[in-house]
Write a structure and sequence with these properties.
Blueprint: E1 6-9, H1 22-33, E2 39-42, H2 48-56, E3 61-63, H3 66-98
Parallel strand pairs: 1-2, 2-3
Helix pairs in contact: 2-3
Amino acid sequence: AGAAGLIVSNHGGRSLDGAPASLHRLPAVRAAVGEGYPVLLDGGVRSGADAFKALALGADAVLIGRLQMYALAVAGALGVAHMLQLLTEELHACMAQAGCAQLCDITPDCLTPQPPC
């Protein structure tokens, strides 16, 4: 269709009960577009662990918005820099615990499947 990439998001979905989380739809989107197509995840990323999960499920990158707003409101530009440092440290900790030396090492095999609800 001419798009350079996709953003998987349920932006606004938080106001609709039962809307699926972006993270839950990510694997199906990745499967539909294939490995070589840029897919970003938006929504629900609150920690480095959340970013790790999104990367493991097929995102090429994650988007954050609310976290930086909060950090900016609390401590200005230094708050945003600190928040980015914390996210990076959390992601690196998850990677180390999963045995991933590089971002490209993060795969679905790094996650433990959750039992159905």
